[in-house]
Specification:
Radius of gyration: 27 Å
Shape: globular
Number of strands: 19
Number of helices: 24
CATH architecture of the largest domain: 3-Layer(aba) Sandwich
Number of domains: 4
Largest sheet: 7 strands, mixed
CATH class of the largest domain: Alpha Beta
Strand order of the largest sheet: 9-8-10-11-13-12-17
CATH superfamily of the largest domain: Thiamin diphosphate (ThDP)-binding fold, Pyr/PP domains
Strand content: 15-25%
Structural class: alpha/beta
């Protein structure tokens, strides 16, 4: 690495001649591919944004100037250029740097970014604060085209335009949102716009035509409408932005030149930069979706490393089951918020394209969209990650639960998700949604139970949430037929005389192993698979308390307001007498690492559960 080993900060990057910057980009891309092939992580987006990030750090003066990124998975080059090259080999690993932007990790990470569509609002606030204090540093927001499908981005755009503050929005268009116009004409047009020639001519035309009361105004309106056909940035200019582009996002010298032009412009500016996901690594260029969030793979071939265990993931089981159910019921429709592959709806999309809807990064809209379908008799299932469902709380309350509409929410990635860390751990959904009336919340112990819960969900005439974890199942035997589960019923897997563990979701199997360890210590511990977070199985709780006088709850959710709290509240309300121990996620954000490592640290694996129970009863 001729260049990277000497780059400790962006100031070192500025010492390199512009014509050598493409060589820096090659080293960065090689570093990213080599590391992510062995660890897994977000690949295609960061490869595509590498040239743009180099140019930004070359022109702007961080950390004095503030560059805010929308989602962190496009910012690996940013991490490498800001003093984290030596640490990059451990990205997303326990004890290593985060895969997303994290303020406590570096002064160059201006604003934490794990979820989409936040950069514009944050940058607007940062610019407003700068103006309030009378400072003169520059503020840049780097937003991918996918993030522009989120409503929050457009709320921020109108606010920025209203304030008229000095801010640069870089729209990183990877050719999947705004139409492509890259070439010589675009370059010439961009330079003309940057120098003000075209803009000044337009302003003069507006002044002249505006003097004529009738036909002048009509002609001006027609001219503006015609301009939309040729200038895709018209919508941005109408919102108060000066629009420049599109420009080639992989021509670093040109990017440096253009950024130098727009750097000192006044008011809101939008620079439209066209990039290619996976740039510089052929397999990622050919398959940008597969390499968006890649597992471990062979660098030479791009082929993923095979899992010898071949246990299906919860996501795959969901995918197969929803297809089977949809085959028998034509009213079942599927909705995703820009995550068809991640949420397991790609197979549904391919088989039933007329019953499949991708609404973009718009979780709130997805829920109300589903509610509208339910009003008309369809059976919608919205597959959305647990951590992203947090954005749709009001829609769940107002548009679904209040109206008792039969919408099924399949919450993938519930519990600890692993290397993506605190922005993606789905550990708050139980407490967030169980407070709502008219809702059923289920959590399967394993992949087989997930199948039965999906069938059950469509037979309720109520809002239903099913939360299930990321990754492989437990390798249990799969039943041939799908079965209906009676609402609010758990099952004893083993009854105990000394204590009974009431477990929910993916902590049921670890609880069973913990009971075996306790038996070796002479303690007779029972285990119940509660299945329902809401409604709770009151009869089972009463039986467990009467049997042993001790109850332990185990969950992969935050303890505050979670499943254990609900059991405790219910026991107190109903006068159930029992000592109780609650095990779950403490009142703190959990870092990143492999799920098995994190569950061990949280003492929520079988050994940890056993040890905590031993300490409690002694």
């Amino acid at each position: 690495m001729k260049f990277l080993q000497n780059i400790k900060s962006p100031s070192d990057l500025k010492k390199i001649k512009v014509e050598k910057l493409p060589d820096v980009a090659k080293e960065i891309r090689k570093t990213i591919v080599d590391v992510i092939s062995g660890t897994g992580g977000h690949l295609a987006s960061s490869l595509g944004a590498t040239d743009l990030i180099i140019a930004l750090h070359y022109v702007y003066d961080m950390p004095l100037d503030k560059i805010v990124f929308d989602t962190g998975h496009q910012a690996y080059a940013h991490k490498i250029l800001t003093g984290r090259y030596d640490k990059f080999k451990n990205i997303r690993q326990k004890g290593g740097i985060s895969g997303f932007l994290k303020r406590e990790e570096s002064e160059y990470d201006v604003f934490g970014a794990g979820h989409a569509s936040t950069a514009l609002s944050a940058a607007c606030g940062i610019a407003a604060a700068r103006d309030y204090y009378g400072y003169r540093h520059r503020v840049v927001a780097v937003v991918s085209d996918g993030c522009m499908t989120g409503g929050m981005s457009w709320e921020a755009m109108q606010n920025i335009g209203q304030l008229g503050t000095d801010i640069l929005v870089v729209l990183n268009d990877n050719q999947m949102f705004i139409s492509r116009r890259v070439g010589t004409l675009a370059k010439i047009l961009t330079k003309l716009l940057t120098m003000g020639t075209v803009q000044n001519a337009e302003r003069r035309m507006e002044i002249v035509l505006g003097k004529f009361k009738f036909w002048g105004k009509n002609l001006l309106r027609v001219a503006k409408r015609a301009r939309v056909l040729f200038f895709p940035g018209m919508v941005f200019e109408e919102m108060g932005f000066s629009y420049f582009g599109p420009v080639d996002g992989h021509n670093i010298p040109e990017l440096v030149e253009i950024l130098g032009y727009v750097k000192n412009l006044k008011g809101p500016v939008l620079l439209h930069v066209v990039t290619k996901k996976g740039k510089g690594y052929d397999p990622a260029e050919d398959q940008p979706i597969e390499f968006h969030g890649a597992g471990k793979f062979d660098v030479e071939t791009g082929l993923a490393h095979k899992d010898p265990a071949a246990i299906p993931t919860f996501t795959r089981v969901f995918s197969d089951t929803i297809l089977k159910l949809a085959e028998d019921d034509s009213r079942i429709v599927a909705i995703t918020a820009a995550m068809p592959e991640g949420a397991g709806l790609d197979s549904f999309r391919d088989k039933y394209p007329d019953r499949y809807y991708d609404v973009g990064i718009a979780e709130g809209h997805a829920v109300t969209f589903a509610a509208g379908m339910a009003v008309q008799g369809l059976k919608p299932v919205a597959a959305i990650y647990s951590s992203f469902m947090q954005r749709a709380f009001d829609q769940v309350m107002h548009d679904v639960c209040l109206q008792k509409l039969p919408v099924v929410i399949a919450m993938d990635r519930a519990g600890i998700v692993g290397e993506d860390g605190p922005t993606h751990h789905g550990v708050f959904d139980m407490g967030l949604f169980r407070m709502l009336p008219n809702i059923v919340i289920m959590a399967p112990a394993d992949e087989n139970e997930l199948r039965h819960m999906l069938k059950t969900a469509f037979e309720f005439n109520l809002p239903v949430f099913i939360r299930y974890p990321r990754g492989k199942g437990f390798g249990v035997e799969i039943d041939g037929d799908l079965k209906f589960i009676k609402p609010g019923t758990g099952i004893f897997l083993k009854k105990g005389k000394d204590l009974n563990i009431l477990a929910i979701g993916n902590r049921v199997h670890p609880a069973l192993k913990a009971a075996e360890l306790l038996k070796e210590k002479g303690i007779d511990a029972g285990v119940a698979d509660m299945r329902f977070v809401k409604p709770l199985d009151l009869n089972l709780i009463e039986e467990a308390a009467a049997m042993s006088g001790r109850i332990v709850t185990v969950e992969d959710n935050a303890l505050l307001g979670g499943f254990g709290s609900y059991v405790l509240e219910t026991a107190q309300e109903k006068g159930i007498k029992a000592e109780m121990l609650k095990l779950g996620i403490p009142d703190a954000f959990v870092g990143h690492g492999r799920p098995d490592e994190l569950y061990k640290d949280l003492r929520l694996d079988s050994t940890g559960i056993c040890e905590r129970i031993l300490n409690w009863i002694s």
